[in-house]
Amino acid sequence: MLRYLPFLLVLALWIYAFIDCLNTPEQEVKHLPKVVWVIIVLLFGEVLIGPIAWLAAGRDRKATAGGSTRSEWHRNHRTEFVAPDDNPDFLKSLKDDNKKDEALLKDWEADLRRREEELKRRENGDDPQQP
Fold first, then answer.
1. 32 Cβ neighbours under 8 A, 6+ residues apart
2. Which one of 32, 52, 66, 98 is CB 3.0 to 4.6 Å from 36, fit for a cystine?
3. Cα separation, 96 vs 104, whole angstroms
4. For residue 31, what is the DSSP state?
5. Is the pTM of this model over 0.85?
6. Per-residue DSSP letters for 48-105?
7. Non-local CB neighbours of 22 within 8 Å, separated by 6+ positions
8. Residue 29 pairs with which residues in a beta bridge?
C-alpha cells in the first residue's frame, strides 16, 4: 500500500494545482496568461514541475492585512458579533414566527373541530349530504 503513496501525493498535488489554476481570476494570475498556466500544469503535472511552478510563481498570493478577506462584499459588510438574545432583529423574527405558528395552529384546531362535528353528525345519521 505504501508504494502507491507517492503516486497518490503527486496526483493530489496535480489536481489541486489544476483546480486552483482554473478557479483563479485572470487579474490574480502572474507572469503568463491563465490559459498558458493551465497547459503548463497539465503537461508537466506528472513530473511536478507544472504544479510547483503554478503554486510558486503563477498566482498572486499576498497575505491580507489583519486577516481580512479580499472579497469586496466582505469588506463592505463587516459586522460585530451580537449574541442572539441581544439582537433585536433576531428577537423580532422569533415573535413574528410565533405569531405565524399560533395562527396556523388556530386554523388547524378549527379544521379539526369542524371535522369532528361532521363525523358526529354522520354517526348520528344527521348528515345533510345524504338523500
1. 40, 58
2. 32
3. 12
4. S
5. no
6. THHHHHIIIIIB--PPPGGG--S-HHHHHT------GGG-HHHHHHHHHHHHHHHHHH
7. 38
8. 59
